[in-house]
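User: What would this chain look like folded?
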Amino acid sequence: MPRPQQGGTPAKNPVKAMKQVLSLVFGERKAAFAFIIACIIIVSFSTVYYSNFLGVFIDEYVSGIIGVENPDFAPIVRALCQFAAIVSVSVVFSYILQRIMVKISQDTLYDVRVKMFRKLESLPISYFDKNPHGTIMSRFSNDTDTLNQLISNSLVQMLQASITLVMLVAAMLANSLFLSAVVAVFVLITVRTTGSISKRSGRQFSKQQASLAAVNGFIEEMMNGQRVIKVFCHEEKSEEDFEKLNKELFDSMSKANMLANVMGPVTMNLGNLQYVALVIVGAVFVMLTGGGHAGYTIGALAAFLQLSRSFSNNVNQISQQMNTVLLALAGAERIFELLDEKSETDDGYVTLVNVVENPDGTLTESSEHTKHWAWKHPHKDGSPVTYTPLRGDIVMIDVDFGYVPGKTVLHDISLYAKPGQKIAFVGSTGAGKTTITNLLNRFYDIQDGKIRFDGININKIRKDDLRHSLGMILQDTNLFTGTIRENIRFGRLDATDEEVEAAAKLANAHDFIMMMPDGYDTVITNNGESLSQGQRQLLSIARAAVADPPVLVMDEATSSIDTYTEALVQDGMDKLMENRTVFVIAHRLSTVRNSNAIMVLDHGRIIERGDHEQLLAQKGVYYRLYTGAVELD
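Assistant: Here's the prediction, encoded as structure tokens.
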């Protein structure tokens, strides 16, 4: 079974990813960013102030009243009031900072999800062919969750810790160069140790994300294929495959979290060792300098110890956030890779418009829904705009195509379909039948040759307008969560209720719809699992009917339903096909007997063509297929 790609890697360029995140979060919020930095500076300054206050309090206030018979406590009270005021300001700005970041993070994630969904809607079909659905869903779930953690929490804590560290270093250097050198030694040890752990844990967290995407994709695939699994008694094999994926996730999560959990205790204990070393060295330093106001005082040592403690706490804070940041940057990088994917290009300039036919036979563009359409063709040479009636005349001339460069799957395909004709494609799996219909929709562009629609090269037609002119009924019907009415209206969003019901009647779907609990307002979910395959196919026909396209593509639309339901579906399709150009792909040759032309394909080439009687008379491949001498695979 196909499985999502695995073995994820850390962010290829963490610095670039961080710049992109900052641009995403603060690119249009420069004033908010400036205010956040101001809040962080105030909070960081408060941290340094707390530490220095201890030294000043001991040397200037406590020492001054020791041994005094009637001490004056007024200076102490004033100092404590000042300290309380600074603490209050810090608390207020910390609260404001957190509220702002929560708002910004949610706004950012909202924008990111919108951009990601819009990007998905703009991507070509080839992107979805190459990327498993589970991997794509992981961008919306796992990667956005880690990005949320980065923006709302880790980013602020990292910024605050970094700014605080700068202020603390300045304060420690001003306090004592000698003791600052002792701290520097422990910093080097801490950086080397945590750097090694972070590098290893970052790789494991990236593998964890990839493994999680693989598990999610596998579960989604299994849920969608439960009927097939049960029919073929594949439960044990599915469990084995899941166990393997789950074991990979278990291993990566265990290693990642083990390394992440080690980081905190390592840095904390290194900080404790640093504190003990400073106490010993500082005490010796106080004794050697004589203490008092002339030398290094006890208050200064107490302040430095507090500064070093704050320094260690902030280093520990950064190290603890490092894994989260690395994980988030890897996820952010994958999000930006999706957003940077090249959208489906469309250089078309011929559009589909409503028209009114004048008495003299000319066409006039109309803003109303006239049910008469024409191709509006502006000419680059400056000549007047022309209007070509939409008839459904399709011609393919010497078309070559390959999904990947160097591997051609269609060779020299030439055919024509006049308005109202029915063209059938017959051939084994992989012969190129569905590929031809994909080219008509411009899901893919041809490498060589030409395809003309009503005499216009389809490369000149805007893709949305081209696809509006085509209706598709596929073997696998996709229904969406919503009412039956909404699912039929999917073919044309401005269709009235009367038009929806008329389309359902044409498709022979009206009777079974009226038997549903709420009729057309019955809500269906999970791709219409409560409906039979035939009922779902009838809704698909109704959806195409309400769109009223001049060209229909039917890709094995009756291959997976019973004979009785096939008669209903076939009758609905026959009514829908009237006066339309129709391309039919069918395994049941009985459904293509009345086609105007039948194309027999083999390995991307048309090897026989003609109507039913002509092909039987040739006694070639079609004859052998029809008579049962060989079978389609």
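The first strand starts at residue 351 and ends at 357. If you want, I can go into more detail on any region.
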